[in-house]
Design brief:
- The complex is a heterodimer of chains A (558) and B (345).
- Chain A has a single domain, classed as Cytochrome c oxidase-like, subunit I domain (Cytochrome C Oxidase, Chain A, Up-down Bundle).
- Chain A is 65% helix and 2% strand.
- Chain A has 16 helices and four strands.
- In chain A, helix 7 packs parallel to helix 9.
- The longest helix of chain A has 36 residues.
- Chain A is globular.
- By secondary structure, chain B is an alpha+beta fold.
- In chain B, the strands form three sheets. In chain B, strands 3-4-10-9-6-7 form a six-stranded mixed beta sheet. Chain B has a four-stranded mixed beta sheet with strand order 2-1-5-8, with no helix packed on it.
- The chains are: A mainly alpha (558), B alpha+beta (345).
- At the A-B interface, helix 3, helix 8, helix 10, helix 11 and helix 12 of A face helix 1, helix 2, strand 7 and strand 9 of B.
Chain lengths: 558, 345
């Protein structure tokens, strides 16, 4: 890609950097230009605002939980309210934040640009996905807040059938159903886009790893999400028509519900973590200014995780009384997932070796990810070991484990990715010092919150308890202090980003020295990304990408 | 004890307990589980520490600085990549194997066990011994816990059922857990090794007072167990005493406050109710008398008290309670005619 292909830019204010006068943010204006936009970048930004707001809401509930658990009894919430709060926390975080966070927000913005195309394959379907997501969000939040749903985010039967709030369960699961379709359409769109719209020169193995991860995620979304739809339909059929499927009173089997539910919800865990791994692969190579170590292994491991991820749902049910053989087979399959995950961690470290490591905000988040995800992954080992799981199942050990993966993994990678692509999305640079401070506080707060929970778990503290034995109080208090620290760190991160919108200096085209296509188009990109389809080579060829003080960013010198 | 407390001082170690990671083990599963945990813990440390050291070292040694420029070339090293695929694979195969073997021990129930029937319902555990006797209660602090008495050095088999939703039977000291599923029996077993009193938790979310669905397990010598069994057979003759016991055993206490005990909600308190007029959700009022109590036990939704329309529903006791038991409960409620309602939370 030569400079001549670049969109028209005018030399901006005295510093010599190139800043486009005309870009997707000011291409058109007015409410409808956003509400009816077919531009994947605007849709991505709208998703971003949506998922961040959901995260803030879910985070508030998390803090309510932690504050309630400060004392071992007589917390400030009643048991009933506490149950509703943890249900809200889990449901909002899973369905409204983590699942759409990376694919829908960052993925939408980046995927076509990384592919050098003007948009996704089906722009109208893309906008449709967004509105489905908004509809699902409204339905879901209405159901959750008005009816006081208290089943936990898993809707386990028969509790979800016999609870007074039966209507709430139907409304909430219908919300999940609609959100599921949003997810399916996004996945479908991405699969078609990647299959058909890659530019000349971009073979499968010259695709940025973020795209590999997104592709693997999309496959799971398209294949697994329909099962969630079926489960919800069966649940409705049982309630409305009285057909016994899950309810023992009608001769149904509650464990069947768990099979259905986890057949979707376990692959969903990989919908959450795979894109995060994709982000880290990009961040590690760009901020080490070095090609990614073992490209093919990382690409294959994404696909391996997506496939194995379909076969391990039974490990959520080790204590439910499944047949012994089934239980043992699920345990064996569970361990297969650990290998591709371990390979990725080693490859990221290999990327740092002999590179040029820039310690900046996105890189700090990426390093925090490796630290936290490694703990999250390793603590999966005792849970997969059957004999040990009999002790640890449904205790705080599990809570700590999945927060290390979901929050220490996905959220931290999401934040890293957000800081990394923020200059591209908004055209503004953020305050690096405060960005790094936010990463540090998040890291410390996170560990302080969740490390004590591992010990709570091995000592036998069960999940979802509104009151607990006094002997657990010290560890709970440590955890609560950690959660407040974490909250402050996240607030600092938000303020840094908001501050940059108003006071940030203009971002150069390539602030970090990336070699993928998004760093070729201006920051922010023009409305149609590329005037002509660019020709591409190796996405991790950092040869000749040099810092140019005049531009305040990197340029390719050939 | 296999706890690693002795060789790994843990900074978060509990101030009072002599252990670090686990409660003291009291079943034959505990050494097995603790051994596996310790093994996996060391494996994790052997992976985690080098990873972090490498990360921090690379961060420092290859940091961007004037005069230094690292290689931009992507590295690739097939032998290294095969090594770090094969070694973790071998390790997880070992972990899987140990876990599966231990699990089979837990799943295969030996012959000649001491059997106990366990019934879980919102939000109380009840236990029925082989001679038909049922569990007693023990007050610890302000809470009355159902108490399961078991003999030491015996194989114990539990036959578990649920009357309503999913529950899970968990004794941390025994490292044993199994879900209790409505509509089927689930079994579990363990071998007790140590006398003492241990915590029993419900670990599958089951509604409002899930976190209060605890019990105590007392492991005693053979002789004491026999004595406890004899006492367990009979419900007391005196209707008031019988009513008091049934109030706890049938789980009434998990929703209805009575006297100075029981959970304050989701159901209404019995205190000061007898003989008064009860306002209903439908707008009518009925007297709180024998017939009202009987109907409310056998068909709870029929006459819901005002203010409790949205509370978690009570399940019917029809088929689970005898008429004399209802009489005993009525006697108990009568005795609370002038008791004060609970104030505050």
């Amino acid at each position: 890609m030569s400079v001549a292909d670049r969109p028209i830019v005018s030399p901006a204010s005295g510093d010599g950097s190139t800043y486009p006068e005309h870009h997707f943010l000011n291409h058109t204006s007015g409410f409808l230009s956003w509400a009816l936009t077919l531009d994947h970048k605007r849709i991505g930004l709208m998703y971003l605002v949506g998922v961040m707001s959901s995260f803030a809401l879910g985070g508030m509930f998390a803090l309510m939980i932690r504050l309630h658990l400060w004392n071992f009894k007589d917390g400030w919430l009643s048991n009933q309210t506490y149950n509703q709060v943890f249900t809200l926390h889990g449901a909002i975080m899973v369905f409204l934040f983590i699942i759409p966070s990376v694919p829908a927000a960052l993925g939408n913005f980046l995927l076509p640009i990384m592919l050098g195309t003007k948009d996704v394959a089906f722009p109208r379907l893309n906008l449709g996905s967004f509105y489905l997501w908004v509809t699902g969000l409204v339905l879901f939040l209405t159901a959750l807040s008005i009816t006081g749903l208290d089943t936990g985010w898993t809707f386990y039967t028969p509790y979800s059938i016999e609870t007074q709030k039966g209507g709430a369960v139907l409304a909430a699961t219908f919300g999940v159903f609609v959100l599921g379709f949003s997810s399916i359409f996004t996945g479908l769109n991405f699969i078609v886009t990647i299959n058909t719209m890659r530019p000349p020169g971009m073979t499968w193995f010259r695709m940025p790893l973020f795209l590999w991860a997104t592709y693997a995620t999309s496959i799971i979304q398209v294949l697994a999400t329909p099962v969630l739809g079926i489960t919800v339909l069966l649940l409705s059929a049982e309630r409305l028509l009285g057909i016994g499927i899950f309810d023992p009173k009608l001769n149904g089997d509650p464990v069947t519900f768990q099979h259905f539910f986890w057949f979707y919800s376990h692959p969903a865990v990989y919908i959450m973590i795979l894109p995060a791994m994709g982000i880290i692969s990009e961040l590690m190579s760009v901020h080490c200014h070095k090609g990614i170590f073992g490209y093919r292994m990382i690409a294959y491991s994404s696909i391996a995780i997506a496939l194995f991820g379909f076969l391990v749902w039974g490990h959520h049910m080790f204590t439910s009384g499944m047949a012994d053989v089934t239980t043992i087979v699920f345990s064996a399959l569970t361990f297969t997932v650990s290998i591709p995950s371990a390979i990725k961690v080693f490859n990221w470290l290999g990327t740092m070796y002999q590179g040029t490591v820039s310690l900046n905000t996105p890189m700090l988040y990426a390093l925090a990810f490796i630290f936290l995800f490694t703990i999250g992954g390793l603590t999966g080992l005792p849970l997969g070991a059957l004999a040990l799981d009999m002790h640890l199942h449904d205790t705080y050990f599990v809570v700590a484990h999945f927060h290390y993966v979901m929050m220490g993994g996905t959220l931290v990678a999401f934040l890293g990715g957000l800081f990394h692509w923020w200059p591209k999305m908004t055209g503004k640079m953020f305050n690096e010092t405060f960005g790094m401070i936010s990463a540090t506080i998040v890291f410390v707060g996170f560990n302080l919150t969740f490390l004590p929970q591992f010990v709570l778990g091995t000592r036998g503290m069960p999940r979802r308890y509104a009151t607990y034995l006094e002997e657990f109080q010290d560890l709970h208090r440590l955890s609560t202090i950690g959660s407040l620290t974490l909250g402050i760190g996240l607030l600092v991160a938000l303020l840094v980003l908001l501050h940059s919108l108003f006071y940030g200096r203009r971002a150069p085209t390539n602030p970090w020295g990336g070699a993928t296509l998004e760093w070729v188009c201006s920051s922010p990109p023009p409305h149609d990304n590329f005037a002509t389809a660019p020709t591409v080579g190796d996405p991790y060829d950092f040869n000749g990408i040099e810092y140019d003080a005049k531009q305040g960013g990197y340029v390719k010198k050939s | 004890m296999y706890s690693i407390a002795s060789d790994m001082p843990f900074i978060l170690a509990d101030k009072v307990a002599p252990y670090a990671w686990f409660p003291e083990g009291a079943s034959s599963f505990a050494p097995q589980v603790d051994y596996l945990f310790t093994g996996i813990l060391w494996i994790c440390i052997l992976f985690f520490v080098p990873i972090v050291i490498a990360m921090v070292y690379f961060m420092w040694a290859f940091r961007e600085r004037p005069g230094y420029r690292g290689s931009p070339e992507a590295l690739h090293n097939t032998p290294l990549e095969i090594t770090w695929t094969v070694i973790p694979t071998a390790i997880v195969v070992w972990i899987f194997w140990e876990g599966a073997v231990g699990y089979l021990d837990m799943a295969r129930i030996p012959k000649g066990t001491v059997d106990v029937n366990v019934t879980a319902k919102k939000w109380v555990w009840s236990f029925k011994y082989e001679n038909g006797g049922e569990n007693s209660f023990e007050k610890i602090g302000s809470v009355d816990y159902p108490k399961l008495v078991l003999p030491v050095d015996q194989d114990i088999k539990l036959i578990m059922r649920s009357e309503d939703v999913l529950h899970s039977f968990y004794i941390p000291a025994f490292r044993a857990k199994r879900d209790v599923v409505p509509g089927r029996y689930n079994y579990m077993w363990f071998h007790t090794t140590k006398t003492g009193i241990y915590d029993l938790f419900c670990t599958e979310y089951c509604g409002d007072n899930h976190s209060n669905m605890n019990a105590k397990v007392e492991v005693v010598s053979e002789e004491e167990y026999k004595k406890a069994l004899e006492k367990a057979v009979q419900e007391p003759e005196d209707p008031l005493e019988r009513g008091k016991l049934l109030y706890k055993r049938l789980g009434c206490s998990t929703c209805h406050y009575a006297g100075d005990e029981g959970a304050n909600g989701p159901g209404p308190s019995y205190n000061g109710s007898w003989g008064k007029s009860v306002p209903l959700e439908s707008g009518e009022s009925v007297p709180f008398d024998e017939n009202y109590v009987r109907e409310s036990i056998l068909n709870p939704p029929a006459k819901k008290r005002k203010g409790y329309g949205a509370a978690s529903p009570m399940n019917s006791y029809a088929g689970r309670i005898k008429d004399e038991q209802i009489d005993a409960l009525i006697t108990f409620m009568k005795s609370l005619e002038n008791a004060q309602p609970k104030t505050g939370k």
